[in-house]
UniProtKB/TrEMBL annotation:
One of its GO terms (molecular function) is phosphotransferase activity, alcohol group as acceptor. This is Streptomycin 6-kinase. It comes from the Bacteria. The keyword Transferase applies. Keywords: Kinase, Transferase. InterPro entries: NH2Glyco/OHUrea_AB-resist_kin. One of its GO terms (biological process) is secondary metabolic process. It holds the Pfam family APH_6_hur.
Length: 95
């Protein structure tokens, strides 16, 4: 993988944002926040990468919290709601 900034970090973080991207790119067609999606979609990543489920869910929680904070700062209620919905669901699944 090429990282033009020369940054190193947890590879799981790179996967976390894909769980919100579909809804954030087109909020009129919600996919990520549909019931059952967060139970199903991580399984695909886990099978393909061998990541630990709890680790992936933890990074989804971190990412959606950070992203929601940015949306709150921008006054974007719709983006905030999407991130917080997925965050809440990921926390529920982690428990």
């Amino acid at each position: 993988m090429i990282d033009p900034h020369g940054l190193l970090g947890e590879r799981t973080f790179d996967y976390a944002n894909i769980f919100t991207n579909s809804d954030l790119s087109d909020p009129s067609r919600p996919l990520a926040i549909l019931p059952g999606q967060l139970e199903a979609r991580p399984k695909v990543v886990i099978v393909a990468t061998g990541m630990e489920p709890a680790r992936l869910l933890s990074w989804i929680i971190v990412w959606t919290g950070l992203s929601a904070a940015w949306f709150i700062g921008d006054g974007d209620d719709q983006g905030t709601a999407i991130d917080l919905t997925i965050n809440s669901e990921a926390r529920r699944l982690l428990d």
